[in-house]
Amino acid sequence: LASVEADLYATVGIHPHEAKEFDGDIEPYRLLARSDKVVAIGEIGLDYYYDHSPRQAQKQVFGAFLKLAAEERLPAVVHCRDAYDDCFEMLQRHLEPGQRFLIHSYSGTPEWAASFLELGAYFSFNGMCTFKKADNIRAALQAVPLDRLLLETDAPYLAPVPHRGKRNEPAYLTEVLDRIARERGLSPTELARVTTATTREFFALPAVP
Questions:
Q1: What are phi and psi of 191, to 5 degrees?
Q2: Could you tell me the CA-to-CA distances from 125 to 40, 62, 158, 201 in Å, in that order?
Q3: Taking burial as the number of CB atoms within 10 A of a residue's CB, which of 8, 108, 170, 195 is the most buried?
Q4: What is the spatial order of strands in the sheet that 10-12 belongs to?
Q5: Judging by DSSP bridges, how do beta strands 38-47 and 10-12 pair with one another?
Q6: Span 66-105, pLDDT tens digits
């Protein structure tokens, strides 16, 4: 799809849920990563909430794909759920100096956000920031500098209020934008301008004509 749609880009990786299926052969992913339309390695990482794959397998796959991201000079899109200690340690160990990485769907504490920022992290927030009981996510949102902030859908999941419970889609991103703009004391227009520029810089996307 990315190869035939001008405005569509892709990332390449193995989600931690599927880590147990990895056969150890990184080369097919390396070939995919070298496509002009592939802009990052991900999403990769650790998920200790569901543990759909053994934790050791998750770590092995995460490490292999962080190495691939470094070798191919691509940013990494990181999934980290209930695994902050191990995730931080692995990023600290495997990232090359200056390598970009994004903690997607961030739901950790402001303190963990500060720790990841020391490694150079970017963070993306989604519809969870609109949920009534998500004060922890809104607190973390305040800890992220504006130039390290991205917006995301995580579609088809986590549709924002007032669409919660429906299949999520990119059109609902405006609800995320409006809530975050309100939390940060910005106009939606200004926040959209800044986060769009940050997203293009992070993924090295071409400028809009």
A1: -65, -40
A2: 18, 22, 11, 17
A3: 195
A4: 10-12, 38-47, 76-81, 101-103, 122-125, 149-151
A5: parallel
A6: 999 999 999 999 999 999 999 999 999 999 999 999 999 9
